[in-house]
UniProtKB/TrEMBL annotation:
Naturally occurring in which organism (per UniProt): Agromyces bracchium
Keywords recorded for this protein, A-Z: Aminotransferase, Pyridoxal phosphate, Transferase
InterPro entries per the UniProt record, alphabetical: Aminotransferase_I/II_large, AspAT/PAT-like, NHTrfase_class1_PyrdxlP-BS, PyrdxlP-dep_Trfase, PyrdxlP-dep_Trfase_major, PyrdxlP-dep_Trfase_small
Any matching Pfam family: Aminotran_1_2
Name by which UniProt lists this protein: Aminotransferase
Example GO BP: amino acid metabolic process
Listed CDD domains: AAT_like
UniProt family annotation: Belongs to the class-I pyridoxal-phosphate-dependent aminotransferase family.
Cofactor(s) this protein cannot do without: pyridoxal 5'-phosphate
Listed EC numbers: 2.6.1.-
């Protein structure tokens, strides 16, 4: 399986920093904020509680699963509909594994997070790319055209990584109809759902409740609660999928550490944290997009959610005779800024730039991006 390009860039920057280089990192979806004190205290109390020193339920602590069930779209969810996992990535792998066999196909959206295709391959299935249009919107007709007799599922993320696009309700309805006709599973990657900045966001099950029996949700506390290192996520959906995931957990990791589950329960009762994170990142998004839009050769759509800007740098690439943005990354690293080239997301004419960094880092990054890209455009003119 190919190396994760984001991890590779981060490792390279770490080596350069050890040699004295001053490089700001705008690569990973890593929140700049810290886990709330109440969540940390809940973990500390749990570690001191002897009941967490022993085995627990493979599916996860009932209190956490009830809190997760209460957060799901629609009514009637219970703890039996939920399995606690080691982050959302783990949940995604379990979801794909539950609904595919070797040789099956799963539709993944491009540009998209490479972890979707990786999860499909890890399950022995084949990812089939469905390209978005030039404006990064997904046309349901393109999804329908990609379905074959071997297609078993489609993975949808809204807001999407790296594009930041949010699926309109009409598109969700059309996709649901397509999935129903083809008897497909919908795997809903909801990791950035709490960081939707526009009023048009709707979860697939809010828009189309009748798809409940064919929808699997994966999510975590990582992004909106600044808990990426805690590795707590979940899978929720129909009984057959939940049972498959629970059996796999019991046979492999037994269960997620109980103290971490207590912390996640506290996080799900913290409603202020996600709201504050949403306001903070929206402000930083606006600053970054405004700065990028002032630069020649760059076209930056405003992301409706998530942590990333995904500007087109096609003009800059053409002016310099470059075929992809990996070449531009080299120039930016020399200027002291690390981002992710679009090749990592099957979009070689774009860059992914994280704006969920602290204000000082963002200010420095904007200053360096502006100076570097302006000079590059001047030299190539």
């Amino acid at each position: 399986m190919p190396e994760n390009p984001i991890f590779a860039i981060n490792a390279r920057v770490a080596r350069l920093r050890e040699q004295g280089a001053d490089i700001v990192l705008l690569t990973a979806g890593e929140p700049s904020t810290h886990t709330a004190d109440a969540i940390v205290r809940a973990a500390q109390d749990a570690v001191a509680d002897p009941t967490t020193h022993h085995y627990g339920a493979a599916a996860g602590e009932p209190t956490l699963r009830r809190a997760i069930a209460a957060s799901l779209p629609g009514d009637g969810w219970t703890e039996s509909d939920v399995v606690v996992t080691v982050g959302a990535k783990h949940a995604l792998h379990l979801a794909v594994r539950a609904v595919t066999s070797g040789g099956d196909e799963v539709l993944v959206i491009e540009p998209g997070w490479p972890g979707h295709a990786a999860a499909v391959r890890a399950a022995g299935a084949e990812p089939v790319a469905v390209r978005t249009r030039d404006n990064l919107s997904l046309d349901p007709a393109d999804v329908a055209a990609a379905i074959t007799s071997r297609t078993r599922a489609v993975i949808l993320a809204s807001p999407a990584n790296p594009t930041g696009t949010v699926l309109p309700q009409q598109a969700i309805g059309d996709l649901a109809a397509i999935a129903s006709r083809a008897n497909l599973w919908v795997i809903s990657d909801d990791v950035y759902s709490a960081l939707a900045y526009s009023g048009g966001y709707a979860h697939v099950l809010d828009a189309v409740p009748q798809l409940r029996d064919r929808t699997i949700m994966v999510d975590s506390v990582s992004k909106e609660h600044a808990m990426t290192g805690w590795r707590i996520g979940w899978l929720a959906g129909p009984a057959a999928v939940v049972d498959s995931a629970r059996e796999h957990l019991a046979a492999t990791i037994t269960h997620v550490p109980l103290a971490m589950q207590r912390a996640a329960t506290a996080a799900l009762h913290d409603h202020d944290g996600p709201s504050e994170a949403r306001q903070l990142y929206r402000s930083r998004r606006d600053r970054l997009v405004a700065a990028l839009d002032r630069l020649p050769g760059i076209d930056c759509p405003v992301p409706d959610g998530g942590m990333f800007a995904f500007p087109s740098v096609a003009g800059l690439l053409a002016a310099n005779g470059w075929s992809g943005s990996t070449a531009l990354l080299e120039h930016l690293i020399d200027a002291g800024v690390a981002v992710v080239p679009g090749e990592a997301f099957a979009a070689p004419d774009r860059l992914r730039i994280c704006f969920a960094v602290d204000d000082a880092t963002l200010d420095t990054a904007i200053e360096r991006l502006t100076a570097s890209l302006t000079e590059l455009q001047r030299v190539s003119a």
